[in-house]
Amino acid sequence: MRPNPAKFSMQIAVAELGTTEAFYAGILDLPVKRGVTVRGAPEHLIMKRGEWELIFVEEAAVINTHPVLEERLGSYPKGVGMTLHFQVEEIEDIYDALVDEGLEILYPLEEKPYGMKELWCFDPDGYLVVLEEPSR
Predict the structure, then answer these.
(1) What pLDDT was estimated at residue 117?
(2) Domain ranges across the chain
(3) Could you tell me which CATH class the domain 8-134 is placed in?
């Protein structure tokens, strides 16, 4: 049994863990850690906040474990119908880093009337990510 299991977890298939780690931990400065694996288990990244966790696993490892998913993972764009929302700090710096890296921005940084700075972008695998920071 895992210590302190999350009450909610979601696994996301990605092309390459290093790129995913660079985006979420590097650019977005979110709490992403390399998961401790047992022999035979795939490497993965974990982002845990409170009672939930997001687990990133390389698509090749998912296909290796569940070959029946290979056709579906290859035939649908990732992230269609799903949006990941994160509250961040220093959103202006993040926006500049996203632009510098040439990552796709859907809606640029904007001050919203409900007291948030917000931008919408795609992560390196095409998942839609909404970043928010309370206005000061």
Answers:
(1) 97
(2) 8-134
(3) alpha beta
